[in-house]
Amino acid sequence: MLRKLAVFTVLLTLALPASLGGTENDDEANCGERKIVLKYLSKKYSEQPIAMGLAANGGLIEVLTSRKGLTFTIIVTMPEGDTCMVAAGEGWENLPDFLAQPQI
């Protein structure tokens, strides 16, 4: 699971609008204060957190999606406080709860 999330952080990055402290040409444009990033994603895409986990490096990884699953975003908040959007897309689909399934 951690490998899959690490791949997301390497493969995709997003540029946030200047209102989040950067521009598309700014290396830190995909990062900002967590409260502002969440507010932006909620207002622009109607996304809310649906899952979270702690990475080995101490980062809090969160998956956000819209109620209908039209869009999703993965963010990471580091212990120092910066929150960065590391992946985004369309067509989010929740899988059946693997904890309820018999282990193979």
Radius of gyration: 14 Å
List the domain count as a whole number: 1
Q: How does the helix and strand content classify structurally?
A: alpha+beta
Total strands: the figure is 5
- What distance separates the N and C termini? 17 Å
Strand order of the biggest β-sheet? 1-5-4-3-2
Strand content: 25-35%
Uncertain residue ranges: 1-27
The best one-word shape is: flat
Helix fraction, binned, reads 10-25%
Order of SSEs, N→C? HEHEEEE
- What is the average per-residue confidence, as pLDDT, rounded to a whole number? 77
Number of H/I helices? 2
Main beta sheet = 5 strands, antiparallel
Give a structural overview.
The protein has one domain (2-18, 33-91). It has helices at 2-11, 34-45; strands at 31-33, 47-54, 60-66, 71-77, 82-90. It has a five-stranded antiparallel sheet with strand order 1-5-4-3-2. It is of the alpha+beta class. Strand 2 (47-54) and strand 3 form a beta hairpin.
Quick overview of this protein structure:
The protein has 2 helices and 5 strands, in the order αβαββββ. The chain is α+β, with helices and mostly antiparallel strands. A 5-stranded antiparallel beta sheet has the order 1-5-4-3-2.
